[in-house]
Amino acid sequence: MSRRPGGELRNGEALPLEGLPALSADLFVAEVEAALKTGARLSALLTLPGRVRGTAPLLAVLSVPESGTLLALRSLPVKRFPSLTPSFPQAHLFEREIFEASGVIPAGHPALAPVRFPPTAEADPAIGTQPFFQVEGGEVHEVAVGPVHAGVIEPGHFRFQCLGEEVLHLGISLGYQHRGVERALREEPPARALHYAETLAGDTTIGHALAHCQAREALAGIQVPARGHALRAAALELERLANHTGDLGAMAGDVGFLPTAAFCGRLRGDFLNMTAQLCGSRFGRGMVRPGGTAFDLDSSGADELRQKLTTALREVAGAVGLLWESGSVRMRFEETGTVSATRARELGLVGVAARACGLARDVRAEFPTGYYRFFQLPVSTSPAGDVFARAFVRWMEIERSGEFLLNLLQSMPAGPVRAEMKEPAAGMLAVSLTEGWRGEICHVLLTGDGNRLTAAKVVDPSFHNWTGLALALRGGQISDFPLCNKSFNLSYCGTDL
Amino acid sequence: MNHPLLERWRQGYRTFPYPQRAPALPARFRGLPRFAAGACPEGCRHCLDACPLGALEAGQRLHPTLDLGRCIFCGDCAAACPSQRLTFSGEYRLAARRRPDLLLDGQPSASCEPLPPPLLKLFGRSLKLRQVSAGGCNACEADANVLNTPGYDLARFGIQFVASPRHADGLLITGPVSQNMRQALLDTWEGTPEPRLVIACGSCAIGGGPYAGHPEVNGGVEPLLKVDLFVPGCPPHPYTLLHGLLALLGRLER
């Protein structure tokens, strides 16, 4: 790649912000576009804190799979910049977020609607009262769902524009789970930061805690011991196994195939209990800590875990195998909720949703950190882009993560699990990516004085993928929505922060 | 060749005989925190300073008071205690009917009282709950939902999560009640016929959890709604929630 006026860094590294040239708005956008044109992806786009509302410097983090590196670009403080969205739709939600949070205007953005509706006194529009995109016509009707849903799930609002049974468009409006996490990472006591990371998306406790700690370690310039890396990878893959198994069960349930739904519901719990064997919490709370992990696993514990894992993997194979051999399941899964590879690329989909469109996107392979730098996992893809592909990618990942874990538990490096943390220098920018079970998690931290952060950006994979769900519904029926929604299984609180 | 019936036979009968038998919890499970008998050294503040959420308060007692309603069971306080006087036990029974019972000098857990007789007559054998996530991170939601799986089989106790507040006897609320969910939560409560119960599930719903003090959240269900059952944990273990529900319905031997 040609030399660009930005900072190149590896995943989990930090650099001084001052080292990045401050570009004009036009040059900044031109550089981002040049990188995107040559195959880079937008992992984060944000504003750094400005002195007055409406003026702030922009920061872009681009992941460049070709070189396995990340590119950071920043601008001078700007009031407006030419919107990237018309040419690169993957920027659309980032730009809406920027406008909402900082007042900086992405000029030419086609739909600058709010994202999270922060509940301030002057909040306008208040959540739920904004105008929605509407299709007009005598036969067209609109169906509104949420924020409270029928199941035991998080809240969000959906608007279906329908012509008869056909869904012409699905509008998704979130923000109901907004808890002010990014603000709090800057303003609340630093001791809470890790607990925000662990509860950013509770089903991704390990993924987010790992991304956060990796960034902290980069800022402090410390090395995590090899055994700590191994245990972190074990916890991350257990989290993937639990959630993928649960999702396959839930998708089976949504097409009325109850055997797999029941078996997988129970088996998901078995994986969660394995995480609890590691750290006492089924969701991995307390496992990942800055510098390494809070818990070790002795050899008898590793043997016990291997045995439990072997049994659970065999039982998952039996439970999930039923899906592929049942005609009624295949009929409902295949050609439902299709997203093309082109659309997936344009929207910047990540994780399972992207791999189910045939895109080999996986942080563990493209930008590996820790244990994944030494032990590779093959990337699982399936080309069809439909519910079936999203189910099948999950199944392949269960097999591969299972095998990876069985090997890992047999050959854990010796030594300590945690290194002593140090206070980071001020003005350092760290970028950290992890492959959570949903996909790419990106944390960007910028240090101030005395262990404080002046900027914190969290990008959950869901943030990239919600529009993929909306497009999957086009041309389908409302009755396909639960199944499509489950096949993406995106996080509301991870998006709403 | 896989066949659903053959696979059913292979998977076996998996419902755990709770409450006849106590559940097996992992050795590292962090349940009810306990202070050792006797007094803490005077002036010692290690646990108070280690708690990221201020759940511990120094008082006139032999040891600090720990508020289970604000505790996220991270274990930092126990790790910081220089004399190992504070430990997390394997006791999973944490639910309480009254907020003060969650202060560690009170009597949380096994003593959770059932509903008064008229309500017990109504709900004791059939309780339908509408779950509302109001800023919850999906951990409480997931471990409430898991009660529907064969291992716990919630329905055998006559307890069910239902799709509409109109069908519900009460709400099971998770999350710190984000301001953006406040109205939707109140609307759902209004839509639930009386008499109705309110269950605050998880540290966030009880006292805001890690989000306590944020202007973006209400800091828990109270004082918006009166709470009938508090279930501590971050998230509560499924057995902690199940124990709380069964105790509320007078279904456990006391």
**Uncertain runs of chain B:** none
Q: In CATH terms, what is the architecture of the domain at 211-450 in chain A? A: Orthogonal Bundle
Task: Report the helical percentage of chain A.
Answer: 40-55%
Question: Largest beta sheet of chain A, briefly?
Answer: 5 strands, mixed
Structural notes for this entry:
The complex is a heterodimer of chains A (497) and B (254). Chain A has 497 residues and is of the alpha+beta class. Chain A has helices at 25-37, 92-102, 181-187, 193-199, 205-220, 226-254, 258-279, 299-325, 327-333, 341-347, 351-355, 363-366, 387-410, 461-473, 481-488, 492-496; strands at residues 7-9, 13-16, 22-23, 41-47, 56-64, 69-78, 80-82, 105-107, 140-145, 157-163, 166-173, 288-289, 292-293, 428-435, 440-447, 453-459. Among the domains of chain A are: 7-107, Beta Polymerase, domain 2 (2-Layer Sandwich); 211-450, Cytochrome-c3 Hydrogenase, chain B, CATH 1.10.645.10. In chain A, strands 1, 3, 4, 5 and 6 form a five-stranded mixed β-sheet that branches. In chain A, strands 2-14-15-16 form a four-stranded antiparallel β-sheet. Chain A has a three-stranded antiparallel β-sheet with strand order 9-10-11. The radius of gyration of chain A is 22 Å and the shape is globular. The model of chain B has no long low-confidence stretch (mean pLDDT 92). Chain B has a domain at 111-248: Rossmann fold (3-Layer(aba) Sandwich), CATH 3.40.50.12280. In chain B, the strands form three sheets. A five-stranded parallel β-sheet of chain B has the order 6-5-7-8-9. A two-stranded antiparallel sheet of chain B has the order 1-4. A two-stranded antiparallel ribbon of chain B has the order 2-3. Chain B is globular. The longest helix of chain B has 12 residues, at 179-190. The interface between A and B is large, with 67 and 68 residues.
